[in-house]
Amino acid sequence: MRDRIAEVTERIVRRSRGGRERYLDRLSEAAERAARAPGRARLGCANQAHAFAACGAGDKALLAGGRTPNLGIVTAYNDMLSAHQPYERFPELIRAAAREAGATAQVAGGVPAMCDGVTQGEAGMELSLFSRDVIALSTAVALSHQTFDAAVFLGICDKIVPGLVIGALSFGHLPAVFIPAGPMTSGLPNDEKARIRQLHAEGKVDRAALLDSEMRSYHGPGTCTFYGTANTNQMLMEVMGLHLPGASFVNPGTPLRDALTKEAARRALALTANGNEYTPIGRVLDERAFVNGVVGLHATGGSTNHTLHLVAMARAAGIHLTWDDFADLAEVVPLLCRVYPNGQADVNHFHAAGGMGFLIRELLDAGLLHGDAATVWGEGLRAYTAEPGLAADGGLAWRDAAAESGAPAVLRGAAEPFQPTGGLRLLEGDMGRAVIKTSAVKPERHVVEAPAIVFHSQEELQRAFKAGELERDFVAVVRFQGPKANGMPELHKLMPPLGVLQDRGFRVALVTDGRMSGASGKVPAAIHVTPEALDGGGIARVRDGDTVRVDAPAGRLEVLVDRAEWDSRVPAEADLSASHAGVGRELFAAFRAAVGGADTGAAVF
Q: Which residues of this UniProt protein bind [4Fe-4S] cluster (predicted)?
Protein backbone atom coordinates (compact mmCIF):
# COMPACT_ATOMS: atom_id res chain seq x y z
CA MET A 1 0.00 0.00 0.00
CA ARG A 2 1.40 3.39 -0.99
CA ASP A 3 2.06 5.63 2.00
CA ARG A 4 -0.25 8.37 0.71
CA ILE A 5 -3.19 5.95 0.33
CA ALA A 6 -2.69 4.67 3.85
CA GLU A 7 -2.25 8.18 5.28
CA VAL A 8 -5.41 9.57 3.69
CA THR A 9 -7.40 6.51 4.72
CA GLU A 10 -6.26 6.79 8.32
CA ARG A 11 -7.03 10.51 8.30
CA ILE A 12 -10.57 9.79 7.12
CA VAL A 13 -10.97 7.12 9.80
CA ARG A 14 -9.87 9.53 12.54
CA ARG A 15 -12.04 12.36 11.26
CA SER A 16 -15.06 10.10 10.90
CA ARG A 17 -14.75 8.13 14.13
CA GLY A 18 -17.75 9.58 15.95
CA GLY A 19 -20.12 9.59 13.01
CA ARG A 20 -19.05 6.18 11.81
CA GLU A 21 -19.46 4.64 15.26
CA ARG A 22 -22.98 6.06 15.58
CA TYR A 23 -23.85 4.74 12.14
CA LEU A 24 -22.53 1.24 12.91
CA ASP A 25 -24.37 1.22 16.23
CA ARG A 26 -27.63 1.87 14.39
CA LEU A 27 -26.76 -0.83 11.86
CA SER A 28 -26.08 -3.34 14.65
CA GLU A 29 -29.31 -2.49 16.44
CA ALA A 30 -31.31 -3.03 13.24
CA ALA A 31 -29.53 -6.32 12.57
CA GLU A 32 -30.17 -7.51 16.12
CA ARG A 33 -33.88 -6.68 15.85
CA ALA A 34 -34.06 -8.64 12.63
CA ALA A 35 -32.23 -11.57 14.21
CA ARG A 36 -34.72 -11.72 17.10
CA ALA A 37 -37.62 -11.91 14.65
CA PRO A 38 -36.22 -13.00 11.28
CA GLY A 39 -37.85 -12.30 7.95
CA ARG A 40 -41.48 -11.35 8.05
CA ALA A 41 -42.12 -12.96 11.43
CA ARG A 42 -41.85 -9.62 13.17
CA LEU A 43 -44.87 -8.31 11.23
CA GLY A 44 -48.49 -8.82 12.15
CA CYS A 45 -50.55 -11.28 10.14
CA ALA A 46 -52.47 -8.51 8.34
CA ASN A 47 -49.20 -6.76 7.51
CA GLN A 48 -47.80 -9.96 6.05
CA ALA A 49 -50.92 -10.75 4.08
CA HIS A 50 -50.85 -7.32 2.48
CA ALA A 51 -47.19 -7.80 1.57
CA PHE A 52 -47.70 -10.92 -0.53
CA ALA A 53 -51.39 -10.79 -1.47
CA ALA A 54 -50.61 -10.49 -5.19
CA CYS A 55 -47.94 -13.23 -5.32
CA GLY A 56 -48.40 -16.54 -7.04
CA ALA A 57 -49.19 -19.64 -5.02
CA GLY A 58 -45.61 -20.91 -4.82
CA ASP A 59 -44.11 -17.60 -3.73
CA LYS A 60 -46.99 -16.99 -1.34
CA ALA A 61 -46.38 -20.32 0.40
CA LEU A 62 -42.71 -19.53 0.88
CA LEU A 63 -43.44 -16.01 2.12
CA ALA A 64 -46.13 -17.22 4.51
CA GLY A 65 -43.73 -19.79 5.93
CA GLY A 66 -41.29 -17.01 6.77
CA ARG A 67 -38.25 -19.29 6.71
CA THR A 68 -36.73 -18.40 3.34
CA PRO A 69 -35.15 -15.09 2.36
CA ASN A 70 -37.10 -12.51 0.42
CA LEU A 71 -35.19 -10.25 -1.94
CA GLY A 72 -36.33 -6.67 -2.49
CA ILE A 73 -35.89 -5.12 -5.93
CA VAL A 74 -35.57 -1.33 -6.07
CA THR A 75 -35.75 -0.30 -9.69
CA ALA A 76 -35.17 2.87 -11.66
CA TYR A 77 -36.78 1.38 -14.75
CA ASN A 78 -38.41 3.56 -17.32
CA ASP A 79 -38.38 3.19 -21.07
CA MET A 80 -37.43 6.79 -21.85
CA LEU A 81 -33.87 6.45 -20.56
CA SER A 82 -31.89 4.24 -22.91
CA ALA A 83 -29.74 3.11 -19.97
CA HIS A 84 -32.75 2.00 -17.94
CA GLN A 85 -34.97 0.52 -20.64
CA PRO A 86 -33.26 -2.91 -20.34
CA TYR A 87 -34.39 -3.09 -16.70
CA GLU A 88 -37.93 -3.89 -17.87
CA ARG A 89 -36.93 -7.57 -18.09
CA PHE A 90 -34.78 -7.74 -14.96
CA PRO A 91 -37.42 -8.31 -12.24
CA GLU A 92 -38.57 -11.52 -13.91
CA LEU A 93 -34.97 -12.73 -14.30
CA ILE A 94 -34.36 -11.95 -10.63
CA ARG A 95 -37.56 -13.66 -9.49
CA ALA A 96 -36.63 -16.74 -11.52
CA ALA A 97 -33.15 -16.84 -9.96
CA ALA A 98 -34.65 -16.48 -6.49
CA ARG A 99 -37.09 -19.33 -7.07
CA GLU A 100 -34.25 -21.54 -8.31
CA ALA A 101 -32.54 -20.81 -4.98
CA GLY A 102 -35.69 -21.67 -3.02
CA ALA A 103 -36.35 -18.02 -2.18
CA THR A 104 -38.56 -15.17 -3.33
CA ALA A 105 -38.09 -11.73 -4.82
CA GLN A 106 -40.46 -8.78 -5.09
CA VAL A 107 -40.25 -5.32 -6.61
CA ALA A 108 -40.11 -3.21 -3.47
CA GLY A 109 -40.59 0.07 -5.29
CA GLY A 110 -39.52 2.32 -8.08
CA VAL A 111 -37.44 5.47 -7.94
CA PRO A 112 -37.50 8.36 -10.40
CA ALA A 113 -34.90 8.39 -13.13
CA MET A 114 -34.50 11.53 -15.17
CA CYS A 115 -32.17 11.91 -18.12
CA ASP A 116 -29.76 14.82 -18.04
CA GLY A 117 -29.31 14.40 -21.77
CA VAL A 118 -32.98 15.26 -22.29
CA THR A 119 -33.09 18.14 -19.80
CA GLN A 120 -29.70 19.65 -20.72
CA GLY A 121 -30.11 23.40 -21.10
CA GLU A 122 -33.79 23.18 -20.18
CA ALA A 123 -35.67 24.12 -17.01
CA GLY A 124 -35.90 20.49 -15.92
CA MET A 125 -32.13 20.37 -15.44
CA GLU A 126 -32.63 22.50 -12.33
CA LEU A 127 -34.28 19.45 -10.71
CA SER A 128 -31.51 17.06 -11.70
CA LEU A 129 -29.20 17.24 -8.69
CA PHE A 130 -32.14 17.31 -6.28
CA SER A 131 -33.43 14.13 -7.93
CA ARG A 132 -30.55 12.28 -6.25
CA ASP A 133 -31.96 13.03 -2.82
CA VAL A 134 -35.51 12.27 -4.00
CA ILE A 135 -34.20 8.88 -5.16
CA ALA A 136 -32.64 8.29 -1.74
CA LEU A 137 -35.96 9.14 -0.10
CA SER A 138 -37.84 6.90 -2.54
CA THR A 139 -35.45 4.04 -1.80
CA ALA A 140 -36.13 4.42 1.91
CA VAL A 141 -39.88 4.35 1.25
CA ALA A 142 -39.49 1.19 -0.86
CA LEU A 143 -37.59 -0.63 1.88
CA SER A 144 -39.70 0.74 4.75
CA HIS A 145 -42.09 -2.21 4.51
CA GLN A 146 -39.37 -4.24 6.27
CA THR A 147 -40.26 -7.46 4.51
CA PHE A 148 -36.87 -8.01 2.88
CA ASP A 149 -33.71 -9.82 3.90
CA ALA A 150 -31.55 -8.27 1.17
CA ALA A 151 -32.02 -5.98 -1.79
CA VAL A 152 -30.80 -5.53 -5.33
CA PHE A 153 -30.69 -2.11 -6.94
CA LEU A 154 -31.33 -1.45 -10.61
CA GLY A 155 -29.86 1.90 -11.61
CA ILE A 156 -27.24 3.33 -13.93
CA CYS A 157 -27.30 7.04 -14.58
CA ASP A 158 -26.08 10.26 -13.11
CA LYS A 159 -27.98 10.90 -9.87
CA ILE A 160 -29.65 7.52 -9.71
CA VAL A 161 -26.83 5.31 -8.45
CA PRO A 162 -25.68 7.82 -5.80
CA GLY A 163 -29.29 8.23 -4.66
CA LEU A 164 -29.78 4.47 -4.47
CA VAL A 165 -26.57 4.12 -2.46
CA ILE A 166 -27.62 6.82 0.01
CA GLY A 167 -31.02 5.17 0.41
CA ALA A 168 -29.52 1.70 0.75
CA LEU A 169 -27.17 2.94 3.46
CA SER A 170 -30.16 4.07 5.50
CA PHE A 171 -30.97 0.34 5.61
CA GLY A 172 -27.32 -0.51 6.12
CA HIS A 173 -28.05 -3.79 7.92
CA LEU A 174 -29.37 -5.28 4.66
CA PRO A 175 -27.05 -6.86 2.09
CA ALA A 176 -27.19 -5.00 -1.22
CA VAL A 177 -26.00 -5.84 -4.71
CA PHE A 178 -26.11 -3.28 -7.52
CA ILE A 179 -27.01 -4.66 -10.94
CA PRO A 180 -25.97 -2.73 -14.06
CA ALA A 181 -27.63 -3.02 -17.45
CA GLY A 182 -24.57 -2.17 -19.57
CA PRO A 183 -23.69 0.34 -22.29
CA MET A 184 -25.32 0.58 -25.71
CA THR A 185 -23.21 -0.63 -28.59
CA SER A 186 -20.90 1.93 -30.19
CA GLY A 187 -22.48 4.44 -32.55
CA LEU A 188 -21.16 7.58 -34.19
CA PRO A 189 -17.61 8.20 -32.93
CA ASN A 190 -17.46 10.72 -30.11
CA ASP A 191 -15.05 13.06 -31.89
CA GLU A 192 -17.40 13.26 -34.87
CA LYS A 193 -20.36 14.00 -32.59
CA ALA A 194 -18.38 16.79 -30.92
CA ARG A 195 -17.31 18.17 -34.32
CA ILE A 196 -20.89 18.43 -35.55
CA ARG A 197 -22.05 20.05 -32.32
CA GLN A 198 -19.39 22.70 -32.72
CA LEU A 199 -20.26 23.26 -36.37
CA HIS A 200 -23.88 23.77 -35.38
CA ALA A 201 -22.83 26.28 -32.72
CA GLU A 202 -21.02 28.20 -35.48
CA GLY A 203 -24.08 28.05 -37.73
CA LYS A 204 -22.27 25.89 -40.30
CA VAL A 205 -24.67 22.91 -40.19
CA ASP A 206 -28.43 22.98 -39.70
CA ARG A 207 -30.61 21.42 -37.03
CA ALA A 208 -31.41 18.39 -39.21
CA ALA A 209 -27.72 17.53 -39.47
CA LEU A 210 -27.27 17.98 -35.75
CA LEU A 211 -30.26 15.76 -34.93
CA ASP A 212 -29.04 13.07 -37.31
CA SER A 213 -25.64 13.12 -35.59
CA GLU A 214 -27.18 12.86 -32.12
CA MET A 215 -29.46 9.99 -33.19
CA ARG A 216 -26.51 8.06 -34.58
CA SER A 217 -24.67 8.63 -31.29
CA TYR A 218 -27.56 7.71 -28.97
CA HIS A 219 -29.13 4.95 -30.98
CA GLY A 220 -30.30 2.05 -28.84
CA PRO A 221 -30.80 0.51 -25.38
CA GLY A 222 -28.00 0.93 -22.87
CA THR A 223 -25.91 3.61 -21.24
CA CYS A 224 -24.50 6.44 -23.36
CA THR A 225 -21.04 5.25 -24.30
CA PHE A 226 -18.95 8.29 -23.37
CA TYR A 227 -17.30 8.33 -19.94
CA GLY A 228 -19.59 10.69 -18.10
CA THR A 229 -21.27 10.30 -14.74
CA ALA A 230 -23.35 7.25 -15.68
CA ASN A 231 -20.39 5.10 -16.66
CA THR A 232 -18.30 6.52 -13.83
CA ASN A 233 -21.06 5.25 -11.54
CA GLN A 234 -20.56 1.75 -12.91
CA MET A 235 -16.80 1.90 -12.42
CA LEU A 236 -17.37 3.03 -8.82
CA MET A 237 -19.84 0.28 -7.98
CA GLU A 238 -17.34 -2.29 -9.16
CA VAL A 239 -14.19 -0.87 -7.54
CA MET A 240 -16.18 -0.29 -4.32
CA GLY A 241 -17.30 -3.92 -4.29
CA LEU A 242 -21.06 -3.62 -4.95
CA HIS A 243 -21.12 -5.22 -8.42
CA LEU A 244 -20.17 -8.71 -9.42
CA PRO A 245 -16.64 -8.81 -10.87
CA GLY A 246 -16.57 -7.62 -14.46
CA ALA A 247 -20.27 -6.78 -14.58
CA SER A 248 -20.12 -3.07 -15.33
CA PHE A 249 -19.72 -2.84 -19.10
CA VAL A 250 -21.36 -5.93 -20.61
CA ASN A 251 -23.87 -4.86 -23.26
CA PRO A 252 -27.60 -5.28 -22.59
CA GLY A 253 -29.71 -7.92 -24.28
CA THR A 254 -26.92 -10.52 -24.35
CA PRO A 255 -26.83 -13.97 -22.74
CA LEU A 256 -23.86 -12.89 -20.61
CA ARG A 257 -25.77 -9.86 -19.32
CA ASP A 258 -28.73 -12.07 -18.33
CA ALA A 259 -26.45 -14.60 -16.65
CA LEU A 260 -24.79 -11.84 -14.61
CA THR A 261 -28.19 -10.48 -13.56
CA LYS A 262 -29.38 -13.84 -12.30
CA GLU A 263 -26.07 -14.48 -10.52
CA ALA A 264 -26.30 -11.09 -8.82
CA ALA A 265 -29.69 -12.09 -7.40
CA ARG A 266 -28.32 -15.40 -6.16
CA ARG A 267 -25.38 -13.62 -4.61
CA ALA A 268 -27.59 -11.14 -2.75
CA LEU A 269 -29.58 -14.05 -1.31
CA ALA A 270 -26.35 -15.75 -0.18
CA LEU A 271 -25.38 -12.66 1.84
CA THR A 272 -28.45 -12.51 4.09
CA ALA A 273 -28.40 -13.12 7.82
CA ASN A 274 -30.18 -16.42 7.10
CA GLY A 275 -26.87 -17.89 5.89
CA ASN A 276 -23.19 -17.96 6.80
CA GLU A 277 -21.95 -15.01 4.68
CA TYR A 278 -23.91 -12.12 6.17
CA THR A 279 -22.54 -8.99 4.50
CA PRO A 280 -24.56 -5.80 5.07
CA ILE A 281 -23.92 -2.86 2.75
CA GLY A 282 -23.18 -0.57 5.69
CA ARG A 283 -20.04 -2.60 6.42
CA VAL A 284 -18.99 -3.04 2.79
CA LEU A 285 -18.94 0.73 2.29
CA ASP A 286 -16.34 1.68 4.86
CA GLU A 287 -13.47 4.17 4.67
CA ARG A 288 -11.38 1.79 2.53
CA ALA A 289 -14.18 1.44 -0.01
CA PHE A 290 -14.53 5.20 -0.40
CA VAL A 291 -10.78 5.66 -0.84
CA ASN A 292 -10.90 2.93 -3.49
CA GLY A 293 -13.70 4.85 -5.19
CA VAL A 294 -11.73 8.10 -5.25
CA VAL A 295 -8.65 6.27 -6.58
CA GLY A 296 -10.77 4.72 -9.35
CA LEU A 297 -12.17 8.15 -10.18
CA HIS A 298 -8.70 9.61 -10.60
CA ALA A 299 -7.26 6.64 -12.49
CA THR A 300 -10.03 6.71 -15.08
CA GLY A 301 -10.48 10.48 -15.42
CA GLY A 302 -14.06 10.11 -14.20
CA SER A 303 -16.89 12.55 -13.74
CA THR A 304 -16.44 15.66 -11.62
CA ASN A 305 -19.98 15.10 -10.35
CA HIS A 306 -18.49 12.57 -7.97
CA THR A 307 -16.74 15.28 -6.00
CA LEU A 308 -20.34 15.88 -4.87
CA HIS A 309 -21.78 12.38 -4.91
CA LEU A 310 -18.99 10.48 -3.16
CA VAL A 311 -18.99 13.05 -0.37
CA ALA A 312 -22.77 12.70 0.07
CA MET A 313 -22.63 8.90 -0.15
CA ALA A 314 -19.88 8.76 2.47
CA ARG A 315 -21.86 10.99 4.84
CA ALA A 316 -24.75 8.53 4.60
CA ALA A 317 -22.40 5.88 6.00
CA GLY A 318 -21.14 8.14 8.79
CA ILE A 319 -17.89 8.88 6.94
CA HIS A 320 -16.49 12.42 6.53
CA LEU A 321 -14.86 12.59 3.09
CA THR A 322 -13.54 15.97 1.93
CA TRP A 323 -12.24 17.63 -1.23
CA ASP A 324 -8.81 17.72 0.41
CA ASP A 325 -8.86 13.93 0.41
CA PHE A 326 -9.61 13.96 -3.33
CA ALA A 327 -6.76 16.41 -3.91
CA ASP A 328 -4.20 14.49 -1.87
CA LEU A 329 -5.08 11.17 -3.50
CA ALA A 330 -4.92 12.78 -6.95
CA GLU A 331 -1.24 13.52 -6.46
CA VAL A 332 -0.28 9.83 -6.40
CA VAL A 333 -2.85 8.19 -8.72
CA PRO A 334 -1.86 8.03 -12.40
CA LEU A 335 -4.29 8.36 -15.31
CA LEU A 336 -4.62 4.93 -16.92
CA CYS A 337 -7.57 5.51 -19.26
CA ARG A 338 -8.34 7.64 -22.28
CA VAL A 339 -12.09 7.44 -22.82
CA TYR A 340 -14.12 10.32 -24.26
CA PRO A 341 -14.00 13.18 -23.29
CA ASN A 342 -10.46 12.35 -22.12
CA GLY A 343 -9.80 10.57 -25.41
CA GLN A 344 -11.63 9.38 -28.52
CA ALA A 345 -12.55 5.86 -27.39
CA ASP A 346 -15.83 4.90 -25.73
CA VAL A 347 -16.51 2.52 -22.84
CA ASN A 348 -16.97 -0.44 -25.18
CA HIS A 349 -13.41 0.09 -26.39
CA PHE A 350 -12.26 0.34 -22.75
CA HIS A 351 -14.02 -2.90 -21.88
CA ALA A 352 -12.57 -4.70 -24.91
CA ALA A 353 -9.06 -3.44 -24.08
CA GLY A 354 -9.11 -5.17 -20.68
CA GLY A 355 -11.73 -3.22 -18.80
CA MET A 356 -12.26 -3.21 -15.08
CA GLY A 357 -10.35 -6.42 -14.38
CA PHE A 358 -7.17 -5.05 -15.95
CA LEU A 359 -7.62 -1.65 -14.30
CA ILE A 360 -8.18 -3.04 -10.80
CA ARG A 361 -5.24 -5.42 -11.07
CA GLU A 362 -2.93 -2.59 -12.15
CA LEU A 363 -4.06 -0.38 -9.28
CA LEU A 364 -3.76 -3.20 -6.74
CA ASP A 365 -0.30 -4.17 -7.92
CA ALA A 366 0.77 -0.52 -7.70
CA GLY A 367 -0.37 -0.33 -4.07
CA LEU A 368 -3.12 2.15 -4.86
CA LEU A 369 -6.18 0.19 -3.70
CA HIS A 370 -7.22 -1.48 -0.47
CA GLY A 371 -7.29 -5.10 -1.58
CA ASP A 372 -8.70 -6.19 1.76
CA ALA A 373 -11.85 -4.08 1.43
CA ALA A 374 -15.06 -6.07 1.74
CA THR A 375 -17.06 -6.87 -1.41
CA VAL A 376 -20.34 -8.57 -2.23
CA TRP A 377 -18.31 -11.27 -3.96
CA GLY A 378 -16.80 -12.12 -0.60
CA GLU A 379 -13.16 -12.58 -1.59
CA GLY A 380 -11.69 -9.08 -1.33
CA LEU A 381 -10.92 -6.85 -4.26
CA ARG A 382 -8.37 -9.20 -5.83
CA ALA A 383 -11.32 -11.29 -7.05
CA TYR A 384 -12.24 -8.33 -9.24
CA THR A 385 -9.15 -8.82 -11.41
CA ALA A 386 -11.17 -11.41 -13.33
CA GLU A 387 -13.67 -11.09 -16.15
CA PRO A 388 -16.82 -13.14 -16.65
CA GLY A 389 -17.73 -15.35 -19.57
CA LEU A 390 -20.32 -17.99 -20.37
CA ALA A 391 -19.58 -21.59 -19.49
CA ALA A 392 -20.66 -24.49 -21.69
CA ASP A 393 -23.76 -25.04 -19.58
CA GLY A 394 -24.84 -21.41 -19.99
CA GLY A 395 -23.67 -20.44 -16.52
CA LEU A 396 -20.83 -18.12 -15.62
CA ALA A 397 -17.11 -18.77 -15.57
CA TRP A 398 -14.50 -16.19 -14.54
CA ARG A 399 -11.06 -15.98 -16.06
CA ASP A 400 -8.08 -13.78 -15.28
CA ALA A 401 -8.23 -10.36 -16.86
CA ALA A 402 -6.01 -9.69 -19.85
CA ALA A 403 -2.31 -9.70 -19.01
CA GLU A 404 -1.73 -6.72 -21.30
CA SER A 405 -3.96 -3.96 -22.58
CA GLY A 406 -5.52 -4.74 -25.92
CA ALA A 407 -5.44 -1.04 -26.83
CA PRO A 408 -2.66 1.01 -25.20
CA ALA A 409 -4.18 4.19 -26.65
CA VAL A 410 -7.23 3.53 -24.45
CA LEU A 411 -6.02 1.65 -21.37
CA ARG A 412 -2.54 1.36 -19.89
CA GLY A 413 -0.73 -0.21 -16.99
CA ALA A 414 0.42 1.75 -13.96
CA ALA A 415 4.05 1.57 -15.11
CA GLU A 416 3.34 3.63 -18.25
CA PRO A 417 0.37 5.90 -17.54
CA PHE A 418 -0.97 8.60 -19.81
CA GLN A 419 -0.01 11.15 -17.17
CA PRO A 420 1.23 10.91 -13.59
CA THR A 421 -2.06 12.15 -12.07
CA GLY A 422 -5.71 11.76 -12.98
CA GLY A 423 -6.13 15.45 -13.66
CA LEU A 424 -8.74 16.33 -11.03
CA ARG A 425 -7.51 19.27 -8.99
CA LEU A 426 -8.80 21.37 -6.11
CA LEU A 427 -8.58 25.15 -6.64
CA GLU A 428 -8.63 27.76 -3.87
CA GLY A 429 -8.47 31.53 -3.81
CA ASP A 430 -10.45 34.76 -3.75
CA MET A 431 -13.55 33.22 -5.29
CA GLY A 432 -13.63 30.28 -2.91
CA ARG A 433 -12.98 26.61 -3.57
CA ALA A 434 -13.60 24.78 -6.83
CA VAL A 435 -12.60 21.68 -8.74
CA ILE A 436 -11.15 21.44 -12.23
CA LYS A 437 -10.68 18.43 -14.48
CA THR A 438 -7.63 18.85 -16.70
CA SER A 439 -7.28 15.38 -18.20
CA ALA A 440 -9.06 16.44 -21.41
CA VAL A 441 -7.45 19.91 -21.48
CA LYS A 442 -4.19 20.52 -23.34
CA PRO A 443 -1.33 21.31 -20.92
CA GLU A 444 -0.77 24.76 -22.41
CA ARG A 445 -4.29 25.69 -21.32
CA HIS A 446 -3.96 24.58 -17.68
CA VAL A 447 -3.31 28.21 -16.76
CA VAL A 448 -5.55 30.98 -18.13
CA GLU A 449 -5.33 34.60 -17.03
CA ALA A 450 -7.76 36.97 -18.70
CA PRO A 451 -10.46 39.60 -18.03
CA ALA A 452 -13.72 38.36 -16.58
CA ILE A 453 -17.04 38.57 -18.39
CA VAL A 454 -19.84 37.92 -15.89
CA PHE A 455 -23.08 36.12 -16.73
CA HIS A 456 -26.02 35.03 -14.60
CA SER A 457 -27.13 32.24 -16.93
CA GLN A 458 -25.76 30.12 -19.73
CA GLU A 459 -28.37 31.67 -22.04
CA GLU A 460 -26.75 35.08 -21.51
CA LEU A 461 -23.40 33.71 -22.64
CA GLN A 462 -24.93 32.06 -25.70
CA ARG A 463 -26.61 35.32 -26.72
CA ALA A 464 -23.31 37.19 -26.37
CA PHE A 465 -21.57 34.54 -28.49
CA LYS A 466 -24.16 34.73 -31.25
CA ALA A 467 -23.90 38.52 -31.22
CA GLY A 468 -20.14 38.30 -31.79
CA GLU A 469 -19.31 39.93 -28.45
CA LEU A 470 -16.88 37.25 -27.21
CA GLU A 471 -14.15 37.35 -29.86
CA ARG A 472 -11.33 37.87 -27.35
CA ASP A 473 -9.46 36.32 -24.43
CA PHE A 474 -11.72 36.11 -21.38
CA VAL A 475 -12.80 34.08 -18.37
CA ALA A 476 -16.55 33.44 -18.37
CA VAL A 477 -17.86 33.75 -14.83
CA VAL A 478 -21.30 32.12 -14.81
CA ARG A 479 -22.75 32.51 -11.34
CA PHE A 480 -25.99 32.04 -9.39
CA GLN A 481 -25.95 28.43 -10.60
CA GLY A 482 -25.34 26.82 -7.20
CA PRO A 483 -27.63 24.39 -5.36
CA LYS A 484 -29.35 27.09 -3.28
CA ALA A 485 -29.83 29.38 -6.27
CA ASN A 486 -31.39 27.05 -8.81
CA GLY A 487 -30.48 23.45 -7.98
CA MET A 488 -26.98 23.53 -9.51
CA PRO A 489 -27.70 22.50 -13.10
CA GLU A 490 -25.13 21.14 -15.51
CA LEU A 491 -24.11 23.79 -18.01
CA HIS A 492 -23.10 21.71 -21.01
CA LYS A 493 -24.54 24.19 -23.52
CA LEU A 494 -21.63 26.46 -22.63
CA MET A 495 -19.10 24.07 -24.11
CA PRO A 496 -19.78 24.39 -27.87
CA PRO A 497 -19.44 28.21 -27.99
CA LEU A 498 -16.44 28.23 -25.63
CA GLY A 499 -14.87 25.42 -27.66
CA VAL A 500 -15.36 27.41 -30.87
CA LEU A 501 -13.70 30.48 -29.35
CA GLN A 502 -10.79 28.41 -28.06
CA ASP A 503 -10.31 26.85 -31.49
CA ARG A 504 -10.19 30.35 -32.98
CA GLY A 505 -7.10 30.99 -30.90
CA PHE A 506 -8.55 32.83 -27.92
CA ARG A 507 -7.59 31.94 -24.38
CA VAL A 508 -10.84 31.17 -22.61
CA ALA A 509 -11.87 29.48 -19.37
CA LEU A 510 -15.04 28.98 -17.35
CA VAL A 511 -15.61 29.66 -13.66
CA THR A 512 -19.00 28.72 -12.22
CA ASP A 513 -20.82 27.63 -9.10
CA GLY A 514 -22.77 25.27 -11.34
CA ARG A 515 -21.78 21.83 -12.64
CA MET A 516 -20.23 20.44 -15.80
CA SER A 517 -20.23 16.65 -15.13
CA GLY A 518 -17.99 14.15 -16.86
CA ALA A 519 -18.17 15.80 -20.26
CA SER A 520 -16.52 19.13 -19.45
CA GLY A 521 -14.14 18.54 -22.34
CA LYS A 522 -11.30 20.61 -23.70
CA VAL A 523 -12.05 24.04 -22.17
CA PRO A 524 -10.58 24.62 -18.67
CA ALA A 525 -13.52 24.86 -16.26
CA ALA A 526 -13.34 25.70 -12.56
CA ILE A 527 -16.67 24.37 -11.33
CA HIS A 528 -18.64 23.78 -8.12
CA VAL A 529 -17.34 27.10 -6.76
CA THR A 530 -18.28 27.28 -3.08
CA PRO A 531 -19.53 29.27 -1.24
CA GLU A 532 -21.93 29.87 -4.10
CA ALA A 533 -22.95 33.34 -5.25
CA LEU A 534 -26.30 33.22 -3.45
CA ASP A 535 -24.41 32.62 -0.18
CA GLY A 536 -22.31 35.72 -0.79
CA GLY A 537 -19.27 33.76 -1.93
CA GLY A 538 -16.36 35.45 -3.61
CA ILE A 539 -17.74 34.62 -7.05
CA ALA A 540 -20.52 37.15 -6.33
CA ARG A 541 -17.92 39.94 -6.02
CA VAL A 542 -16.36 39.53 -9.47
CA ARG A 543 -17.01 42.35 -11.94
CA ASP A 544 -16.63 42.58 -15.70
CA GLY A 545 -13.04 43.37 -16.56
CA ASP A 546 -11.46 41.95 -13.40
CA THR A 547 -8.40 39.89 -14.23
CA VAL A 548 -9.08 36.28 -13.23
CA ARG A 549 -6.37 33.63 -13.01
CA VAL A 550 -7.30 29.96 -13.25
CA ASP A 551 -4.12 28.07 -12.36
CA ALA A 552 -4.64 24.33 -12.25
CA PRO A 553 -0.99 23.32 -11.60
CA ALA A 554 -0.77 25.67 -8.60
CA GLY A 555 -4.30 24.92 -7.44
CA ARG A 556 -5.28 28.61 -7.43
CA LEU A 557 -8.42 30.52 -8.45
CA GLU A 558 -7.67 34.21 -8.04
CA VAL A 559 -9.04 37.65 -8.90
CA LEU A 560 -6.15 40.04 -9.42
CA VAL A 561 -7.61 43.25 -8.01
CA ASP A 562 -6.55 45.53 -5.17
CA ARG A 563 -7.19 43.78 -1.85
CA ALA A 564 -8.85 46.76 -0.21
CA GLU A 565 -11.19 47.20 -3.15
CA TRP A 566 -12.02 43.48 -3.17
CA ASP A 567 -12.82 43.45 0.53
CA SER A 568 -15.06 46.51 0.19
CA ARG A 569 -17.19 45.11 -2.61
CA VAL A 570 -20.82 44.22 -1.92
CA PRO A 571 -21.76 40.80 -3.37
CA ALA A 572 -23.96 41.00 -6.43
CA GLU A 573 -27.58 39.92 -6.36
CA ALA A 574 -29.72 38.27 -8.99
CA ASP A 575 -33.43 37.82 -9.66
CA LEU A 576 -33.88 34.05 -9.52
CA SER A 577 -37.67 33.98 -9.58
CA ALA A 578 -37.70 32.54 -13.10
CA SER A 579 -35.87 29.46 -11.77
CA HIS A 580 -38.21 28.92 -8.85
CA ALA A 581 -41.47 28.09 -10.62
CA GLY A 582 -42.57 26.02 -13.57
CA VAL A 583 -41.66 22.46 -14.59
CA GLY A 584 -42.15 21.45 -10.96
CA ARG A 585 -39.48 23.75 -9.59
CA GLU A 586 -41.90 25.37 -7.14
CA LEU A 587 -42.15 22.00 -5.36
CA PHE A 588 -38.43 22.10 -4.53
CA ALA A 589 -38.34 25.33 -2.54
CA ALA A 590 -37.71 23.36 0.65
CA PHE A 591 -34.76 21.61 -1.03
CA ARG A 592 -33.20 24.92 -2.11
CA ALA A 593 -33.60 26.23 1.45
CA ALA A 594 -32.08 23.15 3.11
CA VAL A 595 -29.33 22.13 0.70
CA GLY A 596 -25.70 22.19 1.82
CA GLY A 597 -22.70 23.47 -0.10
CA ALA A 598 -21.02 21.67 -2.97
CA ASP A 599 -18.03 20.67 -0.84
CA THR A 600 -20.34 18.86 1.62
CA GLY A 601 -22.12 16.95 -1.13
CA ALA A 602 -24.89 19.46 -1.97
CA ALA A 603 -27.37 17.29 -0.06
CA VAL A 604 -30.56 18.16 1.77
CA PHE A 605 -29.99 15.58 4.52
A: 157, 224
